[in-house]
Amino acid sequence: MGFAYLGALLAGIGCMLLLDRRFRLFFWRDAAAAALVTAAGLAFLLLWDAAGIAAGVFLHGDAVVATGIMLGPEMPLEEPVFLVFLVLCTMVLYTGSVRILALRKAPR
After folding, report:
1. What SS3 state is found at 75?
2. pLDDT at residue 1 above 80?
């Protein structure tokens, strides 16, 4: 059961990528730009986490569903995977919303 959360995160990333592929929203629209945005978002959020950990705000709790593998103090393996999912989900939602709004404004 220790890999349930990591597995769920990876499944969520897979689903976001399938949705992205179907509608060519992010990675399937411009892979280089999407990789850059994902890396920048991940770097920013990891720095944010590091600041929170240093301030004593973010603490790792013991969860049965987590792997227990720590990348650093208070930084579980699942955290960067979650942050990639968060960036990917945000960008798919954003690019999909932009497309929907553009279609609504287009003359019929």
Report:
1. strand
2. no
